[in-house]
Amino acid sequence: VAIVPSSKRYRNIEISKDQIDDLVSFSEAVERRQDICPDGELSVFSVCISSAFALIASTRHFYRSLLCVGAYASAENVMREHMLGDQEDDYGRVLLEG
Question: For residue 93, what pLDDT is reported?
Answer without folding.
Answer: 59
